[in-house]
Write a structure and sequence with these properties.
The chain has 15 helices and 2 strands. By secondary structure, the chain is mainly α. It has a single domain (35-217, 226-415), classed as Ammonium transporter fold. A hairpin with a 3-residue loop joins strand 1 (98-99) and strand 2 (103-104). Helix 3 (68-95) runs parallel beside helix 5, helix 4 (129-147) runs parallel beside helix 7 and helix 5 runs antiparallel to helix 7. The protein is globular. The two termini are 31 Å apart.
C-alpha cells in the first residue's frame, strides 16, 4: 500500500493544477516594474539555484565512495520536492498574509494565485511578484539540503523526503515569515538578516545538530573523502551562486547589490585564508579541504550582514567566523557527536557568528532601509541586544522543533538504515546504483 502513496500524491497535484489554473491577472495599477532590477533578479535566481548542485558536489566529495550518489541525491531531490510544496502553499506560508506575525495564510498565493500581470511584493516594488516568489524558492530549496551533511551515510531516502517536507513547513516557513515579512514578528522587532543567516543557516545548523544526536554514530568511524576534486568544484559553484544569494537579496540592481557582492567576496576570501593559516598555526599542512570549508564558512557568516556592513568589516566577519568554526570543529571531533560533515560547526556556528557581528558592525549609511539603528561598534546597543535575544530564541526553536520532527518522521517511516544497508553503502541500498 505504501508504494502507491507517492503516486497518489502526484495525482492529487494534477487535480489541484486543473482546478486552480491561476489565470487571473493582477489589478495593481501603480506598479513600476524596472527592467534592470528584473534582469538582475532573473540572473540571481539562476545563481542561487546552481548552489544546490554545488552543494551536492561539495558534500558528495566529502563522504565515502559508497555513499557519494546518495548524498548528492539528497540535495538534488530538494529541487523537486520543495518546488512543488512552494508552488502549492509554501510561498504563502512564508510570504502570505500574516497570521500573528508567525506564519502566512496558506490561501494567499495558493497554487501561485495572483502571479500574473504586474503584481509585486511589498518590499520589492520594481520586480514581478512571480520573480520574487521564484527567487525566494531557491532559498527554501537549499536550506534542508544543507542539513543532509549531518546525517550523511545513514538515513533512509524515503524517510528523508518526509523530514524535509516537515522541516520546510514547520521550521523554515515560520522563520522566513517572521524575519522577512513586513508584518513578521522578528521583522517588527528590528532583526537584520539580509540574506538568510538566521532563516537559512541557523535553522539548518541546529537541525543538523539535532539530526546527528538523534541518529547517533555511524557503524564505521574511519572516514576518507571520496573525491576532493568534487569538493573544489562544489565550492566554486557555491561561491559563484552565493553572489546571487546575497547581492540578489538587495532585490534590485543598484548600489546595495554591489555592496553585498563586494562584502560577500571579501568575507569568503578572508575566511578561506584564515582557515588555512589557523590550521598551519596548529601544526597542520594547508589542505584543499580546509580552504574549501573556510571559504564556505565565510560565505555563511557574511550572509546576514552582506547588505548592512562595510567592506573592511566584512574581512573581520570572515576571519572571526573561520577561527570560531574551526575551533568548534575541533571540539566536535573530540565528542561522540557524529555530525558527518560538520554542518553545525560550519553552517550553524557560522550563521550565529554572522548574526552577532551584524549587530556589531551594521550601519544605516550602508543600507537606508535599516531603521533599527547602528551596531555595537558605533556605540549603540539596541540592535546587538535584539540579535542576542533572537539568536537564543531561534536556536531553541530550530533545535527542539527539528528534534520533534525527526521523532514524528521516525514514527511514520524508520529514519535510519539497517546496519547491513549502512555497511553496504547507501548508493546500493537506497538507489541500487554505484559511482
Amino acid at each position: 500500500m505504501k508504494k502507491f502513496i507517492p503516486f497518489g500524491i502526484l495525482i492529487l497535484i494534477v487535480i489541484l493544477a486543473l482546478i486552480f489554473p491561476s489565470v487571473e491577472t493582477s489589478k495593481v495599477t501603480d506598479s513600476k516594474i524596472d527592467s534592470g532590477d528584473t534582469a538582475w533578479l532573473l540572473v540571481s535566481t539562476a545563481l542561487v539555484l546552481i548552489m544546490t548542485p554545488g552543494l551536492a558536489f561539495f558534500y558528495g566529495g566529502m563522504v565515502r565512495k559508497k555513499n557519494v550518489l546518495s548524498t548528492m541525491m539528497q540535495s538534488f531531490v530538494c529541487m523537486g520536492v520543495i518546488t512543488i510544496i512552494w508552488v502549492i502553499f509554501g510561498f504563502s506560508l512564508a510570504f502570505g498574509d500574516s497570521m500573528g506575525g508567525i506564519i502566512g495564510d496558506p490561501r494567499t498565493f495558493f497554487m501561485m494565485k495572483g502571479m500574473l500581470g504586474n503584481a509585486t511584493w511589498k518590499l520589492a516594488p520594481t520586480i514581478p511578484l512571480v520573480l520574487f516568489a521564484m527567487f525566494q524558492l531557491k532559498f527554501a530549496v537549499i536550506t534542508p539540503a544543507l542539513i543532509t551533511g549531518a546525517f550523511a551515510e545513514r538515513i533512509r531516502f524515503n524517510s528523508y523526503i518526509i523530514f524535509l517536507c516537515l522541516f520546510m513547513i514547520f521550521i523554515y516557513a515560520p522563520l522566513a515569515h517572521s524575519t522577512w515579512h513586513p508584518d513578521g514578528f522578528l521583522f517588527k522587532l528590528g532583526v537584520l538578516d539580509f540574506a538568510g543567516g538566521t532563516v537559512v543557516h541557523m535553522s539548518a545548523g541546529w537541525a543538523a545538530l539535532a539530526s546527528a544526536l538523534y541518529l547517533k554514530q555511524r557503524q564505521e568511524q574511519a572516514h576518507a573523502p571520496a573525491r576532493i576534486s568534487y569538493v573544489l568544484l562544489g565550492t566554486g559553484l557555491l561561491w559563484f551562486g552565493w553572489l546571487g544569494f546575497n547581492a540578489g537579496s538587495a532585490l534590485g540592481s543598484g548600489i546595495l547589490a554591489a555592496t553585498a557582492l563586494a562584502t560577500t567576496t571579501t568575507a569568503s576570501a578572508a575566511a578561506a585564508m584564515s582557515w588555512i593559516f589557523f590550521d598551519m598555526l596548529r601544526g597542520k599542512k594547508p589542505s584543499v579541504m580546509g580552504a574549501c570549508i573556510g571559504a564556505v564558512v565565510g560565505l555563511v557568516a557574511i550572509t546576514p550582514a552582506a547588505g548592512f556592513i562595510t567592506i573592511p568589516h566584512s574581512l573581520i566577519v570572515g576571519i572571526v567566523a573561520a577561527v570560531v568554526s574551526n575551533l568548534v570543529v575541533i571540539w566536535r571531533s573530540s565528542t561522540s557527536i557524529d555530525d558527518t560533515l560538520d554542518v553545525f560547526p560550519c553552517h550553524g556556528v557560522g550563521g550565529m557568528v554572522g548574526m552577532l557581528l551584524t549587530g556589531v558592525f551594521a550601519h544605516q549609511n550602508v543600507n537606508g532601509g535599516n531603521s533599527t539603528g547602528n551596531g555595537l561598534y558605533y556605540g549603540e546597543t539596541h540592535l546587538f541586544f535584539i540579535h542576542v535575544i533572537t539568536l537564543i530564541g531561534v536556536s531553541i526553536f530550530a533545535f527542539f522543533g527539528s528534534l520533534f520532527l525527526l521523532k514524528i518522521t521516525d514514527m511514520i517511516s524508520t529514519l535510519r538504515v539497517s546496519p547491513q544497508e549502512e555497511l553496504a553503502g547507501l548508493d546500493i541500498s537506497q538507489h541500487d546504483e554505484e559511482l
